[in-house]
Amino acid sequence: MNNKRLVAVLMSVCLAFLAQPAAAAKGFNYNYVEGGYRDIDGDSIGGDGFEAGFSFGAMEYLHIIGRYSHLSIDDLEDASRVDLDVDEFKIGFGGNYPIMDKVDLALDAFFVDEEITGKVKKKDFVNKTRINESNTGYEAIFYARVQALKKLEMTPHVVYRDVGDNSDTGFGLGLVYKVYKKFSLRVRATRFSDDNATNLFLGLRANM
Fold first, then answer.
1. Where along the chain do its domains lie?
2. Do the beta carbons of residue 117 and residue 131 sit within 8 Å?
3. What DSSP string runs through 91-141?
4. What is the pTM for the complete model shown?
5. How far is it, in rounded angstroms, from Cα 94 to Cα 71?
6. pLDDT tens digits for range 90-129
């Protein structure tokens, strides 16, 4: 990620958490930071890395969100050797609305900026091909936050993604399990249909 994108990320985080939150007295918390391990495994792609993100409840029914991830891709269809890095920056906002005491419905919309750099050696080719691509697009996530148990939250979701020349729809489930005061374990798995790819995130969330 270049310096301009890094500055944008840092400014977004600082503005979000320096501002006075307008949080509801009850219900789900939309003020948090999280980070952890990310893995992608599909028919034509495989790799892993890390992801970090934040959410800020700017108003009772509105939250600002941002994410950054870095993936090292080591498997591509029709390639004998792969050495690619994928840096992805997402910034956007979401709306959330309680439909029951323990259920929220939410819709998040992101602007996506993706950079792919590295080398790929295709099968039956002698030399490696140098890759340096920049793609932009958007991602929309519709999900529910369900307080299934006192310490366990479930987040079933549907994702539509359109970045560069690729678009896909995914379905998945996330879990948030409180382990200590403001800290929770965060698991999210999404299955994308076109590539039969599973996107997995495992990390730690800190509520603010």
1. 3-207
2. yes
3. EEEEEEEEEETTEEEEEEEEEEEEEEEEEEEETT-SS-EEEEEEEEEEEEE
4. 0.84
5. 25
6. 999 999 999 999 999 999 999 999 999 999 988 777 778 8
Residue 154 CB neighbour total at 10 angstroms: 16
42, 52 Cβ separation under 8 angstroms = no
Quickly count: other Cβ atoms within 10 Å of residue 22's Cβ: 11
CATH code for the structural domain at 3-207: 2.40.160.20
pLDDT for residue 17 = 44
Q: How far apart are the first and last CA of the chain?
A: 26
Structure tokens at 105: 């419905």
Dihedral of CA atoms 169, 55, 206, 137 in degrees, nearest 10, equals 40
How far does CA 98 lie from the centroid of its chain?
A: 23
The pair of three-digit structure tokens given for residue 167, joined into one six-digit string: 């678009």
- The radius of gyration of the chain from alpha carbons, rounded to an integer in Å, stands at 18
Closest CA to 35 of 137, 143, 168, 183: 183
